[in-house]
Design brief:
Blueprint: E1 5-7, E2 24-31, H1 37-51, E3 55-62, H2 67-71, E4 75-78, H3 90-98, H4 101-111, E5 119-123, H5 133-140, E6 145-148, E7 162-163, E8 168-169, H6 177-181, H7 189-203, E9 213-216, H8 219-225, E10 234-237, E11 258-261, H9 270-280, E12 284-287, H10 293-299, E13 304-305, H11 311-319, E14 323-326, H12 336-343, E15 348-351, E16 366-369, H13 374-386, H14 388-404, H15 409-432
Parallel strand pairs: 1-10, 2-3, 2-5, 3-4, 5-6, 6-9, 9-10, 11-12, 11-14, 12-13, 14-15, 15-16
Antiparallel strand pairs: 7-8
Length: 444
């Protein structure tokens, strides 16, 4: 797909004479609970938009449903399905991953009573359960659609620009001959072939190539994806929100434990962190879950692995850590945990190959190390462990920089609301001028 046109402003175009307001917002995400950064953003934004007076519908395939959604007045439609990776019937999972008919039908039902001129559909995650069927359903119903690029699934078949076999970044052009012939999948080459088929389905019948608006959340993500997005689509910059309330900073120099927060998957660099902790003898903890949990416990028997925790408990664990370790070996698109740590005055040790490094100034707000370099990570951890003054200074500067311009949930919701209203205004103006509109049925 030819390159999308980037726009840094969260409001597309110049406001026309007649205003438009997105009174109804339909948020689509694979999960109705927090299972990773993308789902957390989807849920936080749904709550915040509802609090701001927007009518929000949250449609997800996989439960359980986050209780905070109902508390905020969000109407949640959960299909009660399993994630594709957890379905015991592989044939059913493969078919549903290509086209989730139930999800498309439920979305059409939810959209039927709504007015496309005052409603917008926001797609967050679709590759783990919903499938591209929901994209087609929204566009066929004539609703404006915007998608947040939480990962690289819109352009890369395995979603990560990452070679799981070689455990390193992949620089092949998506869908080139070299891409198709490379066994880069985390499972086996047969699954890579299925991913290629899925990518063809989501860009063809699923109409991913017809999505008119995308949201990017970092410069690294924009640079990797923009050349491969549809030429006629618009790319808007809206940073992810951080759930934080300003309070006196933590005291990381008084703590000992190094903390990882996130999915326990190979691309996250968790093996690297576990090995570095074991070999250095430094205390380590993991908050999160994933298929590598048992292996990590074998690599670092002394490490604490808690699984997923409520957000307040995650914050408490960050406050009780000496530093956050973010060793990701794939590009990421932001890295929420780094900013969550900065909000509490805890420094981060971050791989230089991922988008999270955009939020760390080496030696000022945290430390960087070369991606995949276990010895380099050990040295950074040892430096933090041995120097209380350095740890305190890094944490203090991270805290100050975060709160100088905080990407809070409320500010994120305000930026989204402006974006939604701007899209409706722009498409309404084009309809009135008789111009073609990709996702909108113009009324006479």
């Amino acid at each position: 797909m030819p390159s999308a046109r980037p726009h840094r402003s969260p409001v597309p175009g110049s406001p026309p004479a007649r205003s438009a307001v997105a009174s109804h917002i339909i948020i689509l995400n694979d999960f109705a609970h927090v299972e990773g950064g993308g789902s957390k953003v989807a849920i936080l934004s749904a709550q915040a938009l509802a609090v701001r007076g927007r009518q929000v519908i949250f449609l997800a395939a996989v439960g359980p449903v986050e209780p905070a959604l109902a508390a905020a007045g969000v109407r949640t439609i959960c299909l009660g399905q399993q994630p594709l990776a957890a379905d015991p019937n592989p044939l059913r999972a493969a078919a549903r991953g290509l086209w989730n008919r139930t999800a498309a039908d439920k979305l059409r039902d939810a959209l039927r009573p709504l007015d496309p001129e005052s409603s917008i559909v926001h797609l967050h995650g679709w590759t783990k359960a919903l499938s591209g069927s929901v994209i087609r359903a929204a566009l066929q119903a004539g609703f404006p659609l915007v998608a947040t690029l939480h990962d690289y699934a819109a352009v890369c078949p395995n979603g990560g620009f990452y070679d799981y076999r070689a455990e390193r970044l992949c620089h092949r052009r998506p869908l080139s001959a070299a891409c198709i012939l490379t066994d880069c999948d985390s499972r086996r080459y047969a699954h890579k072939l299925w991913r290629l088929v899925r990518h063809g389905v989501q860009t063809g019948p699923g109409r991913l190539a017809a999505i008119p608006h995308f949201i990017n959340v970092s410069e690294v993500g924009r640079a990797l994806q923009a050349p491969h997005l549809p030429r006629d689509s618009r790319l808007h910059f809206v940073p992810n929100p951080i759930e934080a309330v300003r309070a006196p900073p933590a005291a990381p120099a008084q703590q000992a434990e190094f903390l990882f927060v996130g999915r326990l998957a190979a691309e996250k660099g968790v093996r690297l962190f576990a090995a570095a902790a074991r070999e250095s003898g430094l205390p380590a903890a993991f908050v999160g879950d994933g298929y590598l949990r048992a292996e990590l416990q074998r690599i670092a028997p002394a490490a604490r692995i808690s699984g997923w925790l409520p957000s307040r408990e995650v914050t408490r664990r960050i406050e009780c850590s000496r530093a956050l370790v973010f060793p990701s070996q794939w590009p990421e698109t932001q890295g929420l945990a780094v900013l969550e740590a900065a909000a509490r005055g805890v420094p981060a040790i971050v791989s230089d190959g991922c988008a999270a490094c955009e939020w760390v100034e080496h030696g000022v707000t945290g430390l960087l190390f070369r991606s995949g370099d276990r010895v380099g990570l050990q040295r950074r951890m040892a430096r933090i462990a041995a120097d209380d003054a350095l740890t305190a200074r890094l944490g203090r500067r991270a805290y100050e920089r975060f709160w100088d311009d905080p990407p809070t949930v409320d500010r994120h919701a305000a930026a989204l609301a402006r974006l939604y209203d701007g899209i409706l205004q722009e498409e309404g103006s084009r309809c009135r001028r008789g111009e073609p509109v990709g996702s909108r049925r113009c009324r006479g």
